[in-house]
């Protein structure tokens, strides 16, 4: 079993865009971009960990 399958799936909360101002929408986009960057860094970290593990077990 892959350990990724054990991690909880985070469902995004519903956002009613009709109630948000342009400024609030821009802030929302900024927050999402920060979350995307964190996810990319996490993916990179997991990839490095996987490569390290593969190298360890090749020896």
Q: Nearest-angstrom radius of gyration?
A: 18 Å
Counted by DSSP, the helix tally is 1
Helical percentage: 55-70%
The end-to-end distance, rounded to whole angstroms, is: 23 Å
Number of domains: 1
- Rounded mean pLDDT is 87
**How does the major sheet shape up?**
none
Q: Structural class of the secondary elements?
A: mainly alpha
Q: Say how many strands there are.
A: 0
Order of helices and strands: H
State the shape: elongated
Low-confidence stretches: none
Oligomerization category of the chains in this entry: single chain
Beta-sheet strand percentage? Answer: under 5%
Any overview of this molecule?
This protein is mainly α and 59 residues long. The protein has one domain (17-58). The chain is built from 1 helix and no strands. It starts with 21 loop residues before the first helix and ends with a helix. The mean pLDDT is 87.
Task: From the structure above, extract its key features.
single chain, 59 residues, mainly alpha, 1 helix, elongated
Question: Gist?
Answer:
By secondary structure, the chain is mainly alpha-helical.
Write the layout of secondary structure elements.
Elements: H1 22-58
């Amino acid at each position: 079993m892959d350990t990724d399958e054990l991690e909880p799936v985070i469902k995004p909360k519903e956002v009613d865009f009709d109630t948000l101002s342009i400024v609030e929408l821009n802030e929302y986009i900024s927050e999402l971009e920060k979350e995307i960057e964190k996810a990319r860094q996490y993916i990179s970290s997991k990839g490095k960990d996987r490569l390290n593990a593969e190298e360890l077990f090749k020896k």
